[in-house]
Design goal:
This protein has about 150 residues and is an alpha+beta fold. It is built from two helices and eight strands; from the N terminus they run H-E-E-H-E-E-E-E-E-E.
């Protein structure tokens, strides 16, 4: 996890940008998470709005409404893997340093949007490492049951 501490200047700036872009309060943003994929590592297709392991968390904090995936590195020339694939949309996004993909996990009425199914594709070249930051926005404050404070977990 990147910055369970909200007083870190870099984490704070990233969270402020996410909140400003999405129109949600910072209190609705989960702690940021860095992901790292090497050759052959991937994240199978999934929806961010719900995970059967997160039932209690979903009740406390609401479902994930919006996903931000901020790419920290480019894929090197000749690398054809490492993208983020959306099979329902027949779309794959190649990482570009400093860019982000943002998508709604749910419709405005709160219904889950199945088109948000996505997968982290594995880098194919031995020297390629993919880095990104996940930022998820909940429908409710992630602090409401934690009493606020500057540290989340």
């Amino acid at each position: 996890m990147l910055g369970g501490r909200l007083d870190d200047a870099v984490v704070k700036r990233i969270r402020q940008r996410i909140a400003r872009f999405a129109g949600y309060s910072e209190e609705s943003i989960e702690p940021l998470q860095v992901v790292r994929y090497e050759r052959g590592q991937k994240y199978e297709g999934h929806h961010d709005f719900f995970d059967v392991c997160d039932v209690e968390d979903k009740i406390s904090n609401g479902r994930r409404q919006v996903t931000f995936l901020i790419y920290l590195v480019d894929m090197p020339a000749g690398e054809s893997g490492g993208g983020t694939r959306f099979p329902e949309l027949k779309l794959e996004v190649a990482p570009q340093k400093g860019s982000a993909i943002v998508f709604n996990d749910c419709f405005d009425n709160g219904a889950e949007d199945g088109r948000s199914l996505h997968a982290g594709q594995p880098p194919l070249e031995p020297s390629t490492v993919k880095y990104a930051i996940n930022g998820w926005i909940r429908s409710q404050s992630v602090y409401s049951h934690m009493g606020g404070g500057s540290s989340l977990w």
